[in-house]
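Human: We require from you a standard protein entry with sequence in single-letter code and fold as tokens, and nothing else.

Assistant:
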Amino acid sequence: MMGGPENGQRIGVVLGRREATPLEFWVGVEGEGLLRLDDLVVVEGYHPKVGRVRYFGMVDHVAKAHEGESYDTDTFLAVEGKIPVSLAYVAHVSVTRILPEEFFPPDPGSAVYLAQGEDLELALYYEAMKNQRGSTKLPAGFLKNGEVAYLNLEFLNGVKGGHVNISGISGVAAKTSYATFLLKSLLESGVLEDAHQARVLLFNVKGEDLLFLDKPNLRLSPEAKRDYEKLGLDPGPFRSVAFLAPPKKGGEGILPHVETRLEGVKAYYWDLVQFAQKGLLPFLFADRGGMSNLGYLIVHVTEKLRRLAEGQKGPHLLVSDWPGAELPEEITFDDLGRVRLKSFAQLVQYLEYKLLGSETGEGKGDETWVARQARGTLEAFVRRLRSSVENVGHLIRGDRPGNPPDPLSGSHQVHVVDLAKLSPQAQMFVVGSLLSDLFAKKERGQYRGRVFVVLDELNKYAPRDEESPIKDVLLDIAERGRSLGVILIGAQQTASEVERRVVGNAAIRVVGRLDAAEAERPEYRYLPTSFRQRALILPQGMVILHQPEIPVPLLVRFPFPAWATKREEVLEDNSAEALRREFF
């Protein structure tokens, strides 16, 4: 076939029997040409008043049909050669760009070429992905034709936009896999200028898959290694990772509650003074919106605890207004006669006394703590606190100084915080506490680098129809985070169940395999019909990528993880022979 624009391969012509417009046209594929969904093409047009115009577009529909048949059964006759027919192989093209912007249609019969080289970059606006410092093309995977797909970094790092939202069915959509691949690209591609200052807070919500990010993957094939090299990335694990897990319940020591990774994991927890000083009480009440009176009481008690803890260093929380007659036997005193609270359970007992009075229900609570609340509201508050002791008592301690996760300190760039074995209430507490503390530090200017937060199950933490303090923090990050350098890479099975403003503020949207009913929800209307249909059958390793500068979504393949995702995939130093057997 003849060469055309940028020596691209001629694939067919613009059809004249079907209407051609400046925004869409049909292509007749000629000879043995191959045109598939997602292929990019270029057509040249000419008008004497405007000169040469190029139309760039993406194939979003392909079809074959016999011309010359009148009835369905004519196909059998055509196969037997009893009636003359012609095979029509046609494709519909949605125009992505016109250069120069002269909106008149291409002529029927105009030659259509596969977009390659410079034409490919023009079709996808890649040449515009740059700033004064250089290129902003962030590797995001591979296109259908094997070329590298790029994201404009400025729509991810907060310059022009920020945040990523990933949707898909659990287990097959590879949400976490693509999120970690994006992190790999951000930290190691060299496109993010201050990548060495960037920090990552990565929540592990299922199993222990993310506890091996620093280990090579035994199953990484030579082809996958070449993929990483083509993307400009090192085909290896993450280089600087800290792993934190909640402590096991019971026992005298503090041991991280993990099963498959037994080294390099530290336990995290807060002491009572940190809990009070940082105002973490609201994150024990994820459903406060249903009881406005209870919400006011939570805020009031939180502030009372904050004032009580002023100037204290912990881990014990010292109080001086608990009468001896009400003291549990295990409580002790300091040199000044103040009561030492040494567990979360004791703190709950103290709050119960301050709000309700004696344990027998006689008398009344301290009026400065009660805040004129009805007895029923106070009792509801105390009941919820009592029920939380079992869930978070090992996370909020008074027996030793706290060790909460702090992704903005230390030498590690990536902090993996394990939540998998915690109860739902404890998970909410940890996520809310860490995000609120991180956002507050960024607001105060305590860390200048960018912080990327990766959180799955957004529908649980920022539900559409409920209110909670955690949702408030996530909304703050979604609406103001990019200006402070806090970028949310959020994921969920169903975007329709997540607060609209959290999803709506994500400049980059990624879709893996979807449930059929979910694909029809309004949250996916930005996808053309053909892409919504294909989302139902996407294999692992493939996602649909949408970004502001490109008017059509891109089908993207991303490489197999170069880091182990479970213990069985860890490549140990003595595994060379196993690796040889695996590949050869």
Remarks:
- The first strand starts at residue 10 and ends at 14.
- The radius of gyration is 30 Å.
- Confidence is low (pLDDT under 50) at residues 574-584.
